[in-house]
Every structure is written in C-alpha cells, then in structure tokens.
Amino acid sequence: MMNTLRSKILVLTVLLVSFGLISGCTDFKKKYNALNVEHQNLKGLYDNCKVTLDGSASEKQELAGRLAESQQTIDDLKRQIESGQTAGEATGFGDYQVDVDSAAGTITVTLPNTILFDSGKAALKGSAKGDLDHIVSVLNDKYRNRMIDVVGHTDNDPIRKSSWKDNWELSSQRALSVLRQLNSTGIPDDRIRAIGCGSGKPIAPNTTASGKAKNRRVEIVVHMR
Fold first, then answer.
1. Is the pLDDT of residue 182 over 90?
2. Domains of the chain: which residue ranges?
3. Could you confirm whether domain 105-223 is CATH 3.30.1330.60?
C-alpha cells in the first residue's frame, strides 16, 4: 500500500507542477478547471489516507504540503481569471512575454534578440535601453529584494562569420551586456548574475527560421524565494 500511495503522490505531483506553469498566452480558465480536478483527486487521496491510516507520517505530510501548494496555485489562477489579467499585467511587466512558475518560485521575462542585439553582436542596441530601463523600474518597485538571473540563449547554428568562439560565448556575452545595463541603472551587484546557456535550452524546434528566432533570447529571471 505504501508503494501505491507513493506512486499516486508522484503522479499527482507531476500533474500539479505541470499545471503550475503560467504564461501570458495561457488560457487561465482551462488551466484552472484542469488543476481543480487534480486538486480534488489529491484531496480525496489525502482524506482516504487519514481515514485508513495507510502510508507513513512523512507521506501524509507530503500530501498535506502538496494539497496546500495546489490550493495556492488555484487561488492565484482564480484571481487572474477574475481580474482578466495576463501574466505580464499581473506581475507588473506589461506587454512583455512573462512566465510565472509557481513550482520553481520564479518569474521569467523573455526578451527576443531582435529588440536587444544586431545579428551576431553582443552590444546592446540603443533602442534596447528603454526596454531595460522599464524592466529595472519594475524590479526596483515590486521585486527590490529578489535575486535576478540574466540568462542568454542562442539557436543551434554554429558560429561562422562572427568572432565568437561558439554559442556558449555568444550567449554569455549577451547575458553580460544585459546584466551590465541593469546594474548600471539600479540593480546592485549582490542581486544579479549572468548565465550563458548557448543552444542547450531551446523553447522551439531549431528546424525552422521562426523556431530559431524564438530560441535567440535573453531571459530575466526573478527568484521569488
């Protein structure tokens, strides 16, 4: 019985974590309804565990924790549905692409390379500084004490024409350029770091031009815990 209970906890945990990924393009109502079903399944498992005394104390505690996390995510989604807000509006970042990961405790603002850099370059465009200044104002207003990662990404095309050694170097230098701009306009040294991922974490297939364009990006990740 303990193995069966542990398996059920694992399956429901995976489902709840999956439903906890909120993006600006998400249909919040569908996500809310699906998550609510899994929440009721988890609640039923927890209630049965209490009545039958199946499972260890640690498993019961884990179920209670998952139940609380699930309820918090449902409450967050309900508030967004009622307010009609997108993730960008709810977090203060407006029209930017924003993903809120409740499980990881992060808010990620994604900036496509087209607004930040010229092709093959790591120096910021002059026009990009206005976008970054706006982001700094939001970070200082709503997330003043939070740690921030600036994460650079590329597509998987090998470096041929530019002077960069490889995509690791290019993604790292682009992350550093954004970090330095954020740092120079108000984000202190002890709250920010730069990370280069190269082509290792694509969000779209690298088999099409549109997919490659999506993968060339810089993410500003706010850690909420």
1. yes
2. 2-86, 105-223
3. yes
